[in-house]
Amino acid sequence: MNVSELLRLLQAEHDETAARTGSLREQLERLTTTLAETEARLGELAATRKVIDDLTPCDHEPASTETATVYQRIVTTFNEHPGKVFHVRDLHEHLGLPTDESSVNVTRSRLGRPVRQGLLEQPGPGRYQKRT
C-alpha cells in the first residue's frame, strides 16, 4: 500500500466520522429539546395534581377522626337545613363548636372546598348555604 492510498483511506474514514459526528449532534439537539419539553410537561402535571388534590373532597385526604367528624357534622347541618343561610360563627354555635376566632377561621377555610365543588354557595360575604 502506498502513501496516496493510505491518505485516501484516511480521508474516507475522516469523512465518515465527521458525518457520524454531525448525526450524533443532531440527535443530541433533538433529545435535549425533547427532554426540556418533557420536563416542562412533568411540571405542569405536578401542578395539575396539586390543584386537583386541593379540590378533592376531604374524605380523599387522610384526616384525623375528629376533623372528619366535624366536617361531616357541618355537611349534615347544611343538608338538614337546605334553605338556611349560616354565618360561620352561627354554624359553630349551632353545632356546639368553639366560637373563638381561630376555630371559626379553620371552619371558614374548610367551607371553601365545598363552595368550589358546588355543594355550597355564598349568598354574601361570610355567609354559606346549601346549593339548591
Provide a descriptive summary of the structure in words.
This protein has four helices and three strands. 6% of the residues are buried. It has helices spanning 3-55, 65-80, 88-95, 101-117, and strands spanning 86-87, 120-124, 127-130. With 132 residues, the chain is mostly helical. The chain has a three-stranded antiparallel β-sheet with strand order 1-3-2. Strand 2 and strand 3 form a beta hairpin. The mean pLDDT is 86.
Give start-end ranges of low-pLDDT stretches: none
Helix/strand structural class: mainly alpha
Name the helicity range.
Answer: over 70%
Shape: rod-shaped
Mean pLDDT: 86
Question: For the largest beta sheet, what order do the strands appear in spatially?
Answer: 1-3-2
Number of helices: 4
What does the main sheet amount to?
Answer: 3 strands, antiparallel
Q: Proportion of β residues?
A: 5-15%
**What radius of gyration results from the CA coordinates?**
32 Å
Number of strands: 3
CA(first)-CA(last) distance: 95 Å
What's the SSE pattern?
A: HHEHHEE
Features:
mainly alpha; three-stranded antiparallel β-sheet; 3 strands; 132 residues; 71% helix
How would you summarize what this structure contains?
This protein has about 130 residues and is mostly helical. It has 4 helices and 3 strands.
